Amino acid sequence: MSAISRSVTPLLLSLMLSLTTPLLAMAAEIAVTLPPLAGLVKMLDAEAEVMCLLPAGANPHRFQLQPRTIEKLARSRLLIRASFDDGGWPLPPNHENVFDIWPAMDHGWVSPKEVRAILPELAGVLIKLHPEQADSINSNLAKAIATTHTIEQQWQQALATAKTSGVIMQHPSWRRLMNDMQVPILNVLESGHHGHEHGPHALDASLHDLEEHPQAWLISDAGHNNRALEWLQQHSAHTPHHVTLDALANCSTSWDQLMLQNLQQLQGQSH
Question: What is the model's pTM?
Answer without folding.
Answer: 0.85
